[in-house]
Amino acid sequence: MTDRIASQQIDYSPVALGKRIFVSLTLLVLIISSAMTGVYYWQYQDRLRQEMREKLHDIVAVAALQIDAEAHNTLRLPEQESGPTYLRLRRDLQRIRDTATGIRYVYTMVPSADGQIMFVLDAETNPEEIAHLGDLYDDASETLKTNFASLDKPLVEQDFYTDKWGTWLTAYAPFYTSDGKRAGVLGIDIENSNIQTRERYLLLTSLPISFAVILAVLIFSWLVAYRLSATTRSALQSLRASEEKLRNIVEYSSNLHYFHTDQHVLTYLSPQTHRFLDCGPEEAKRRWTEFVSDHPVNKKGFEITQRAIDTGEQQPSYELELVGTKGRKIWVQVNEAPVVQEGRTIGIVGALTDISESKHYADFIQHQATYDALTDLPNRRLLLDRLSQTLTRCRRHGKKGALLFLDLDQFKHINDSLGHPVGDAVLKAVAERLKKNLRDEDSPARLGGDEFVLLFSEVGDDTEKVAEYTQMYAEKIRDLLSKPYKIQGHELHVTPSIGIALFPMEDENADDILRHADTAMYRAKEAGRNTVRFFLPSMQHAAEELLRLKNNIQQALERREFQLHYQPLVDHANNLLGLESLIRWQHPKRGLIQPDQFIPVAEDTGQILKIGEWVLANALQQYKTWTHFPGFPLPSRMSVNISPRQFLNPDFVIKVERLLAESDVDPACLTLEITEGVLLNKLDMARDKMLTLKKLGVRFSIDDFGTGYSSLAYLRRLPVDEIKIDRSFIRDISNDPEDASLVETIITLADKLCLQVVAEGVETEEQCRFLRECGCSCFQGYYFHRPQSADTLEALFK
Predict the structure, then answer these.
(1) Given its phi and psi angles, is residue 418 left (phi above 0), alpha (psi -120 to 50 degrees) or beta?
(2) Contact at 8 Å (CB) between 633 and 797?
(3) CB contact at 8 A, 522 and 499
(4) What does the alpha-carbon distance between residue 160 and residue 143 come to, in Å, rounded to a whole number?
(5) Which helix (H) or strand (E) holds 358?
(6) How does DSSP assign 259-295, residue by residue?
(7) Are 672 and 700 in contact (CB under 8 A)?
(8) Can you state the angle between helices 356-370 and 380-397, rounded to 10 degrees?
(9) Phi, psi of 535, deg, nearest 5
(10) Whole-angstrom Cα distance, residue 495 to residue 561?
(11) Could you give the CA distance from residue 234 to residue 222 in angstroms, rounded to a whole number?
(12) Are residues 258 and 354 in contact, defined by beta-carbon separation less than 8 angstroms?
């Protein structure tokens, strides 16, 4: 049975296909050739007959002009047939007949008294076969009968007629008397033998041509069939290769290919089902929705697929989270298209791409973009986004929220003394404490450096109770973060300054709230650190004032509003040893502004670089001026404070060298005062810069010594010439034994290291006496001299 069915199947091999193509083309060519030959023959025959009509039209028209109409009117009776007039007219008609070949009859007709057609004359050589004068023309055609009475121009019959003598064509033309009256009608019959001869010639000549054309077409058909057979063979081979490639793509592709019905039932799956769904293709033939997790994104995917089924239009790709038969979850990207037949979607064909790795990587990138790399807390970007959402919810529900801005006090000293690894460990420990002591709905964040933020969402609807709760929680956080940290063998103490901003208050946005909390935090620092402060509208006024101060600093540089005052450094007998240059700002509206009000701002904005260069240049220029001032006790050195940002600038050494050259001041007369923090931050770089300037003769002094993480190591490694004991230790040496002991230790240490000691902030005789007894020989403070302008100082010492 199978063999019989197989034998009945159509052979689709290239050879069989070529034969079928050849036979089909041959039959098609024969049919077309036959049809074209018939059409050509018919058209040629019609054209020949038309030519015959035109020729006969011209003959009968010319012949009608040669007829003697008056002589015809005299002949009416049969007995006149033997008369000379009749014979003459007959000879005239014979001449007309002889002018063209194939003419059968030339005759004339005249109307009878009752309007019928009557033969008048005939020119045929065989009179027995024709009618005689006066006989009626009973066999006249319908054309002649219809047009005889009114015929005024030549007329040719449209149809040929056939009798026992052959096939003929008849034409008529009226002839007139000399006075213009129509006498009768001339008729001429011409035989069709000429046309038949030409038709036979056409037929005999067209057959060989048709045969040749058919033969050529057959040869061409064979060539086409052969070529098509070869092309088909190649196409079939390519098709088989393409099918094989497609099969390999489907079977070995990393994607899972599938088809499911409009009822979402899977009916085909490629072998990758094992990798995607942990089962075989047959086991997976069920509703595909059974393989999706409860992730919210899957609902959107089902809606997209259903829309494709309903509309029959391809939809954009989407993502799904699938769950295999073993519970394993993967993320896939779905690309599918509807299969439409007769206007109805019968199913969906698609492919799944495993994007689990890229999804995890994208999530990692998103996490990196929105979370702090060190503490894994939300960063500023994510904080502002959550704060904006919380602000919207609070306004919608009539609730209050709070934002706590935390800054770790003196954290910079940990980085400077113990290094950044220890500082980073402290920051991570702070983050862990914050995460463990917050509600689930609250959000901690790190803005950078040692700044943290806590976001409390929808705490309550009563502002006072919210403030009370936030104050209590802030104190709890402060106590929590103030507990010791054991980091790499060190027990470290860190305290936070916390600023709180409640919201919503007015029409503020997320940036405004963050700025308010930041302002409150700075107020907490100004209040002595390790404390909590709420934001008040007056604080915003102060923040705006700070912004104006930044703008005024730039204008002060341009308007030359800065001045230098000089405070003497003396020995116990008030002999002038040196001068320290101190900047002052003479504001046109606010008067004299002290350095502690604008120097930190200039340090933050970078304006300190221009200010520091201006101070150094003017101090050196003033010192050079005093060298030529008669009677002025020129000090041995001029001290200039160098800011951290100025010292760390790559061009610092070059600028100092240039300013020394421009002022023509001996470098040995210049002392640069720098703080401990600058040295410890980048010790090797600081040492290189100091050594370069020391080669010129420049001296270095450690300012505010003792306030930082003082270390014998850096004092021994760096080319330091003197240390200046900070005024905070000098202030209480008379009544605080610890400060007195510390100052005495510093003086002893400096003596051992061959460093000169300067005591800052000496304001009483008792302080001076204690310092002198400890071995200090250089003093600076109000007990001796206040900072003075150059003019006042000149008058004082002169």
Answers:
(1) alpha
(2) yes
(3) yes
(4) 12
(5) helix 356-370
(6) EEETT-BEEEE-TTHHHHHSS-TTTT-SBGGGGB-S-
(7) yes
(8) 80
(9) -75, 135
(10) 39
(11) 18
(12) no
Cα 173 to chain centroid distance, Å, stands at 91
Distance CA 131, CA 135 (A): 6
148 CB-near residues (< 8 Å, 6+ apart):
109, 111, 117, 140, 185
> Which three-class secondary structure state does DSSP give residue 77?
coil
Strand residue runs (E) in 624-710 = 637-641, 670-675, 699-705
Round to whole Å and give the CA distance between 531 and 523. Answer: 9
C-alpha–C-alpha distance, residues 640 and 537, integer Å:
39
Asked whether the beta carbons of 209 and 102 are under 8 A apart, the reply is no
Could you tell me the CA-to-CA distances from 409 to 355, 449, 470, 529, 603 in Å, in that order?
A: 46, 12, 21, 7, 19
Q: Which residue, among 406, 437, 388, has the nearest Cα to 500 in the 3D structure?
A: 406
Q: What is the mean pLDDT of each run of 10 residues along the chain (798 residues)?
A: 44 61 71 72 73 82 83 75 80 81 80 73 58 70 78 83 74 86 84 62 62 72 70 75 74 83 90 88 89 88 90 90 90 92 90 87 86 92 93 91 92 85 93 87 90 91 84 90 90 92 88 92 87 74 69 85 92 89 89 86 86 94 87 84 90 94 93 81 83 93 74 75 89 87 89 90 92 92 91 80
From the list 535, 475, 524, 467, the residue with the least C-alpha distance to 497 is: 524
Query: Given the structure tokens 């049809």, which residue do they identify?
Result: 35
Looking up tokens 């002839």 gives: 175
Q: How many CB atoms lie within 10 A of CB 502?
A: 21
Q: Which residues pair with 117 in a beta bridge?
A: 111
Task: Tell me if 570 sits within 8 A of 778, measured CB to CB.
Answer: yes
Residues 453-504 have pLDDT tens digits of 999 988 888 888 888 888 888 989 999 999 999 988 888 989 999 999 999 9
Helix axes 411-418, 420-436, angle to 10 degrees: 140
Q: How far apart are the first and last CA of the chain?
A: 136
Tokens of 241: 């290769």
| pLDDT number for residue 6 | 40
Which H or E run includes 185?
strand 182-191
Three-state DSSP at 628 gives coil
Half-sphere exposure of 409 (CA within 13 A, CB side): 22
Cα dihedral: 605, 536, 481, 430 (round 10): -50
Instruction: Locate 628 and state its tokens.
Output: 């030529």
What is the Cα–Cα distance from 506 to 393, expressed in whole angstroms?
A: 15
d(CA 405, CA 520) in angstroms, rounded, equals 8
Q: What are phi and psi of 162, to 5 degrees?
A: -125, 135
**Paired tokens of 590:** 């606010």
Distance (Å) of CA 231 to CA 158, 357, 669: 56, 46, 101
